[in-house]
Design goal:
By secondary structure, this protein is an all-alpha fold. Helix content is 57%, strand content 0%. The longest helix is centred in the C-terminal third of the chain and has 20 residues.
Length: 100
């Protein structure tokens, strides 16, 4: 599979601390980014909870009410479950799931 190079700027202390954690897990930053992006695609959204309450985040970001946000979340979970059952979406549970 062809690859591309990505560049980003992050705080040097954060990079050092994250490299230490990744090393203990047997990963490097590139592998982690690939895993995170794969999960982003598989979940069709962030693969982790947003720390700000979802309702206030969506209200400020998209101008929707908490009720609208809850309905959208429910619809997305149902769609994700349906798509996964149809075999159109795969879940990554380990590093081996990323290799063809």
């Amino acid at each position: 599979m062809p690859t591309i190079q990505m560049r980003s700027r992050i705080d040097s202390k954060l990079k050092k601390k994250s490299d230490e954690v990744l090393k203990r897990l047997g990963l490097d930053a590139g592998s982690f980014v690939s895993m995170a992006l794969t999960q982003l695609v598989n979940h069709r959204g962030l693969p982790f909870a947003v720390t700000d309450s979802d309702a206030s985040y969506f209200a400020s970001e998209y101008g929707i009410t908490p009720t609208q946000s809850a309905k959208a979340g429910t619809a997305l979970r149902r769609e994700t479950t349906r798509t996964r059952r149809q075999g159109k979406l795969r879940e990554v549970k380990s590093l081996s799931d990323l290799t063809p």
